[in-house]
TrEMBL record:
<keyword id="KW-0138">CF(0)</keyword>
<dbReference type="GO" id="GO:0046933">
    <property type="term" value="F:proton-transporting ATP synthase activity, rotational mechanism"/>
</dbReference>
<keyword id="KW-0812">Transmembrane</keyword>
<keyword id="KW-0813">Transport</keyword>
<feature type="transmembrane region" description="Helical">
    <location>
        <begin position="25"/>
        <end position="47"/>
    </location>
</feature>
<feature type="transmembrane region" description="Helical">
    <location>
        <begin position="142"/>
        <end position="165"/>
    </location>
</feature>
<keyword id="KW-0496">Mitochondrion</keyword>
<dbReference type="InterPro" id="IPR045083">
    <property type="entry name" value="ATP_synth_F0_asu_bact/mt"/>
</dbReference>
<keyword id="KW-0378">Hydrolase</keyword>
<feature type="transmembrane region" description="Helical">
    <location>
        <begin position="201"/>
        <end position="218"/>
    </location>
</feature>
<dbReference type="InterPro" id="IPR035908">
    <property type="entry name" value="F0_ATP_A_sf"/>
</dbReference>
<dbReference type="InterPro" id="IPR000568">
    <property type="entry name" value="ATP_synth_F0_asu"/>
</dbReference>
<dbReference type="InterPro" id="IPR023011">
    <property type="entry name" value="ATP_synth_F0_asu_AS"/>
</dbReference>
<feature type="transmembrane region" description="Helical">
    <location>
        <begin position="83"/>
        <end position="107"/>
    </location>
</feature>
<dbReference type="GO" id="GO:0016787">
    <property type="term" value="F:hydrolase activity"/>
</dbReference>
<keyword id="KW-0406">Ion transport</keyword>
<feature type="transmembrane region" description="Helical">
    <location>
        <begin position="224"/>
        <end position="244"/>
    </location>
</feature>
Length: 245
């Protein structure tokens, strides 16, 4: 029974390509790849609104555009406006993956730590490369707080380096853990409710069904909030490429 709750997290190979040139190595197109490709397609369609009098959906996209632009401007200033397209695309990509994952029988790639950690690690590497390109060796001043005693330098550099590298872990784990917990809770409650209905306890099953409705609304909020938090922290980290603190 416990294993059944985790079946929703299984990665299933849909198409596998093997060639003699690759040896034992195979290229697979999985349900996770399918979801990401579907989200990219929907994402492209969402930004095709060009009406002077916008539709309801175009109004939602313009609202998201405004919120993300304000977030980037408040954290990065005018110099950080160049990162706005990246942050906007990142937000919509993650939020669509999260929201689509709430539908039955739809796989959610963002519950896998390898996906979220891959995103966060790529962002951290990008921030480091851009920071080194913009500030050269002065970028290393991030690892040595100003005004600190020289005798504490080795310890502070070690601590700051670990803290800097842990950004990738915390950014990725936070997103995957919150979504995984919500999906597991929903699976457990739905299984419990189904058992009550099949055992003739329809009246008593009303209470867990009401909880499921609340959990569904909560999960929808979490899907959007976690995407926003991920992008907010990404914006803050990008601040190191605009100005050293």
């Amino acid at each position: 029974m416990t294993a059944a709750y985790f079946d929703q997290f299984n990665i299933v190979s849909l198409i596998t390509i093997r060639t003699p040139f690759l040896g034992d190595f195979a290229v697979s197109f999985t349900n996770s790849s399918l979801m990401m490709l579907s989200v990219i397609t929907v994402f492209w369609l969402l930004f095709k609104g060009e009406r002077i009098i916008p539709t309801r959906w175009q109004l939602i996209m313009e609202l998201i555009h405004s919120v993300i632009r304000t977030m980037v401007r408040d954290n990065l200033g005018k110099e950080g406006a160049k990162y706005f397209p990246f942050v906007l695309c990142l937000f919509i990509f993650i939020v669509l993956l999260n929201v689509f994952g709430l539908f039955p029988y739809v796989f959610t790639p963002t519950v896998h730590i390898i996906v979220t950690f891959g995103l966060s690690l790529s962002i951290l590497i990008g921030v480091t490369i851009i920071g080194l390109f913009n500030f050269k060796t002065n970028f290393m001043s991030l690892f040595m707080p100003g005004g600190a005693p020289l005798m504490l330098a080795p310890f502070l550099v070690l601590i700051e380096t670990i803290s800097y590298m842990s950004r990738a872990i915390s950014l990725g784990v936070r997103l995957a853990a919150n979504l995984s917990a919500g999906h597991l809770l929903f699976a457990i409650l739905s299984g419990f409710t189904f058992d009550m209905l099949t055992n003739g306890l329809a009246l008593l099953s009303i209470f867990p069904m009401l909880i499921m409705i609340f959990i569904t609304l909560l999960e929808m909020a979490v899907a959007v909030i976690q995407a926003y938090v991920f992008c907010l922290l990404t914006t803050i980290y990008l601040g190191d490429t605009v100005a050293l603190h």
